[in-house]
Amino acid sequence: MIFNFIFGRHKKQPKRPASALADLRVGEKAILADLELSPPVAEHLMNLGFVPGLEVTVARSSPGGDPRVYRVEGTEVAMRRDLSRHIHVELAGAPVFGD
Amino acid sequence: MGASTMSCHAVARPRDESLSTSYRTVAVVGPPNSGKTTLFNRLTRLRQKVGNFPGVTVEHHTGYVRDLEGHEVALIDLPGVYSLTPKSEDEKVAVDVLTGQMPGTPRPDAIIVVLNSTNLHSHLVLAGRVIALGLPTLVLLNMADELRKQGGHVDVLSLARQLGTPVALVSAITGEGIVAVQNFLSAATASPEPLELPVVGSTRGYREWAVKVGTNAKYHRPATPVWTQRLDSIFLHRTWGAIIFGVVVIGVFQTIFAIGQPLSNLLQHFLDASALQISNHLPHGMLSSLIVNGVWKGTGSVLVFLPQILLLFLVIGILEDSGYLSRAAVIADRTMSRVGLNGKSFIPLLSAYACAVPAIMATRTIENKRDRIATILIAPFMTCSARLPVYTMVIAAFLPNRPVLGVFLGTRALAMLGLYVLGFLMAVFTARLLKSSVLKSKDAPFILEMPPYRWPTLVSLGLRLVDRGKAFLYRAGTVIMLVSLLLWAATNFPMHHGQPPAVQDSVVAWVGHAIEPAIRPLGFDWKIGVGLLTSIAAREVIIATLGTLNGIDPQSHAVDLQAALKHELTPAGAVALLVFFAFAMQCMSTIAVVRRETNGWKWPVLQFGYMTVVAYVAAFAAYNIVGHFVH
C-alpha cells in the first residue's frame, strides 16, 4: 500500500460504454476511431501505428495506474491518461485493415 | 547457417555495370528501435567520429567502411525518425541531410533504410517516404533472427519488386546478411523507379499502402515475444514492479556513489602521487609549477570524472539495451509528471546526486529536446558529492552535534539533510518555472515506445563507453583544461623574484578583494571570495584555498581550519555560505559538459547566470534572516 501512496493511484473510472482509449480496462480491445489531438501529436501516434481502423489492446498498466501501455499490431506504446482520453475508439467491429 | 546464406543473396536488383562508381557518402536512416545504431556499429566499429550539426543539439556519428573494391565510404548515422515531416528537431536534421540542405554535410549519394522486420507495416511507411526522395536506396529488414524465431515471414524478392529497390533481410546482432551492405556500396544501383505512393500524403494513406505492400509480400507479423510479455507482467506489476524499480534505482545510485566515487578518489590519489613524482624530477621553479599544478592537475581534474561517467553509462547502457529503461520511465513518470517532467528524466536526475557531469551526459536518453534541456538545467541543483566536503566542514565548524531523534539523527545530520532538501526543492521550483515558460512543451506529451526485452551485447556496451569517454575527454575536457590553466595563472602571477607569489598577493586575491563589496552583503570577506573563485575548478577546492589563505593544512589540522572559519564568518554568514553552495553552479566541468551537450554557449551561460543569481539572492536572504535571530 505504501507504493500506492508513493506513486499515487488513479481512481477507477467505471464510465461505460467506452468511447475513449482511457476508458478501456486492461486486456480490452477496440478499434481506433479518431485522434482528437493536435496535428503533430496525432501524426506522431499514427507513425507509431495508432492509425484509425486498426485494433488496439490495453496491454498493461504501470504500478501507479497511469501511464498505461497500449498495443497496436507489433508496437507497444506507453501514454498518459491525459492523452488516451482524446483517442476515440469503437468497441464493436473488426479492424478496417491491417493484419 | 542455411538461412543466413539465403538472405545474403536476397538483394533483388541486378548490378548495373555502367554505374560502377562507388558511393562516397551514404546516409543511414531508420525509426527508433529498428536496431539502426547496432547495425551502424557493426559496420564501422571504432572507425567513427561524433559531431554536431550546426545550430542544433542533435548529435550524429560518421563512420567509415570499405566497399568490396576497397574504396572508403562515409556512413552518416542520422537520428532515429518515424517520418520525414520536419516537425521535430530530429526529423528536420534527417530531412536536411537527405536533401543536401545541411551546411557542412554533402548530399548523400545513396540511402540505407533500416527497418524492424518484426514491425514491418509500421516501418514501411518510412521506407516509402525515403524511396520517394529518388536516391539509390537499400532497404534492410533488420532483426531477421527475431522474425524467424517468433514465427514471422516475409518474401524479400516480392518486397524488392514492389519497392523498386534492393531489399535484404539482416540481423545487426548476429551479422546475418550484412554482406548486402557491401554489395550495395560497391555496385551503385540506379535510382529507384517512381513508387506508386498514395497521392494524398496522409499517414493513414501511407499506412494502407504499407499494409498492401506487406500483404503482397506475404508478410506475416510475428507474435509479441513471450518473454517480453512475461517480464512485463513482473516489471510492471503493481507490487513487484515497484519493488524491482526501487532495487534498480538503489543499484544505479550505489554503483556511481559506492563504486564510482572511491574509484575517482583512487584515481585522484594516484594523480596527486604522480604529480609529486613529476615535480621531484623537475627543477624547482615556474616551469615545474606550470607542468605540475597547471597542466597535470588540469588533466587530473578532467580524468577523475571518467570512472563515474563510464560506470553510469555502463549501467544505463545495460538498462537501455535490455529494454528496462523504458519500463523504468513508465513507472517513474507519475512522480515526475508532478514537476512537469516525464519519467525519462528520473535516472539522469538520480545520478546527479553523485555528480552532475555524468548525469547531464545521461540526459541523451530523453528524446524530447525541451525536457532534455530542462533536465540538464536542474541537474546541478541536486546535491552532488563535491558539495559534501564543504557542507561537512562548515557544519562542523558552526553546529555542535546534539541528538535530535536519539541516536538516529543529530543536529549535523539534520542540517545536511536540510541542504539536500533545499537543492531538491530548488530543482523542482526551477523545473516548474522552465516547463511553464520557455521550455513549455505542449505538443510533446509523454509517448514512449516499449521495445521488447533483449540481452545487451558486450560490443554495443563497449562501443558506447568508448564513445561517451571520448566525447567527454575531447569536447568537455578541453574547456576544463583551459579553465584549470587560467586558474593556475591567476594563482601564480604576478611572480615575485621569479617565484610564484603567496596566494594573498596573487591575481586571484586581487579579484577576491575586488569582488568583496559585492559579497559583503552575504557576510563573506575577500578570503571567502577567493575561495568562491577557486572553487569553480571543483567545489571542494574552497577548503584547500581557505587552508592556504589561513596558513593551515586542512588535512592534518581540520579543527584549526574550522576555528579559523569561525573567526571569518558569523553564524549567519556560514548559513549564507551553505545556501550559496547549494544553489551556485560552482563547477567548470558541469559548465563544460552542458556546453558540449547543448552544442553551444547559450544554455550554460544562462544556467550559470540563473544559478548564481538564485544563489546570491538566497544567500543574501539567509544572511539577513538568520542574522536577525542569531548573533
Structural features, described:
The complex is a heterodimer of chains A (99) and B (631). Chain A is α+β, with helices and mostly antiparallel strands. Chain A has a single domain (12-90), classed as Ferrous iron transport protein A (FeoA) (SH3 type barrels). Chain A is 20% helix and 28% strand. Chain A is built from three helices and five strands; from the N terminus they run H-E-H-E-E-E-H-E. Chain A is globular. Chain B is an alpha/beta fold. Chain B is 58% helix and 8% strand. Chain B has a seven-stranded mixed sheet, sandwiched between helices. Chain B is elongated. Strand 4 (75-79) of chain A pairs antiparallel with strand 10 of chain B, so a sheet runs across the interface.
Short description:
The complex is a heterodimer of chains A (99) and B (631). By secondary structure, chain A is of the alpha+beta class.
Q: What's the helical proportion of residues of chain B?
A: 55-70%
Q: How would you sum up the global shape of chain B?
A: elongated
| Amino- and carboxy-terminal Cα gap of chain B | 82 Å
CATH class division of chain A: Mainly Beta
Percent range for β-strand residues of chain B:
5-15%
Question: What structural class results from the helix and strand content of chain B?
Answer: alpha/beta
Number of strands of chain A: 5
What is the radius of gyration of chain A? 13 Å
Total of domains of chain A: 1
Looking at CATH, the homologous superfamily of the domain at 2-223 in chain B is P-loop containing nucleotide triphosphate hydrolases
Portion of residues within helices of chain A: 10-25%
Q: Name the poorly predicted regions of chain B.
A: 1-20
Q: Major sheet of chain B, described briefly? A: 7 strands, mixed
Q: What is the count of β-strands of chain B?
A: 10
Largest sheet of chain A: 5 strands, antiparallel
Order of helices and strands of chain A: HEHEEEHE
Which ranges of chain A are low-confidence, i.e. pLDDT below 50, for 5 or more consecutive residues?
5-9, 11-16
